UniProtKB/TrEMBL annotation:
GO biological process: carbohydrate metabolic process
PANTHER family tied to this protein: POLYSACCHARIDE DEACETYLASE FAMILY PROTEIN (AFU_ORTHOLOGUE AFUA_6G05030)
UniProt xrefs under CDD domains: CE4_PuuE_HpPgdA_like_2 (cd10941)
Protein name: Polysaccharide deacetylase family protein
Family annotation (InterPro entries): DUF3473, Glyco_hydro/deAcase_b/a-brl, NODB_dom, PuuE_HpPgdA-like
Gene3D superfamilies assigned: Glycoside hydrolase/deacetylase (3.20.20.370)
Residue ranges of every copy of the NodB homology domain listed in the record: 23-296
Organism, scientific name: Rhodohalobacter mucosus
SUPFAM superfamilies named in the record: Glycoside hydrolase/deacetylase
GO MF annotation: an example: hydrolase activity, acting on carbon-nitrogen (but not peptide) bonds
Source taxon at top rank: Bacteria
Amino acid sequence: MTEQKIVCFTLDVEDGVSIAMRDIFGKNTEQTDRVVTYTKQIIELLGKHGVTGTFFVLGEVAKKFPDLLKAIAKADHEIGVHGYHHLQFFRMTPDEAFQELTSAKKLIEDLTGSEVAGHRAPAFSITPETEWGLDVIAKAGFIYDSSIMPVRGRRYGWPGFSKDITTIPTGYGNLIEVPMSVGSVFGKEMPVCGGGYLRLFPYRFTRRMIEQILQKRPAVVYMHPYELDTEPYPDYYFEELRKTDLLTQLRMRSMWINRKTIFSKLDDLLTQSNFVPMIHLVNEYIAGVETEGSTV
């Protein structure tokens, strides 16, 4: 297995219903068991292909559904932290972010009995404006982070950031950054390996983009459990949706376009590459740096 042919499958384990209720409608609601249903579907699909990946789990999900955390660990997947309340870094102070990360890390470690090495920020919210977050992540005790999208985007992105795994010096030691994968489409760099892109574009496009990335570096694929959810959301969700403006209604309803195609596309994708958990890439990177005689 050569480094250039490796793909990481990552899942941001969060409940789409409760996050939409809070972030779109300003209503705090309980986590729903949909996150359990669709995370387990993904675990089963990965098992079918003999694939292990990295599951970045939200603290709120781990607290309400500890058995889901145990199911992830039992299937030999790596478990990382996705924050506790799914708060983007630009919504927090450094002290609040530290509490958010350490509380989730401790909870997950207590439930699994294993140390957590990796972190991913909600909505890839480590950007030039929240660069201070890298210090917080290192201070919280993480070995690596995978939160930076190295492109200029509408909602997130860090244009000019390295596309390769890199070491970031912080005030609390070095932090390894595993950036998200981007591809070049008609000369424009853009995210191409997320569940939303798998949903919207033909499978052959996603496969071609991954092959393009693999010519230079490993690829990172990311998804969310709710992207497999094709059932109508609860009535209380639609009651709030009807109160919003037309643009918001259209934007939220557009998230169901092609959802029924994702499972089969993912099924095909998992047969095409050598998939590994992200900690594998990190360990290979550390070994390579040490071989070259420098420090990580």
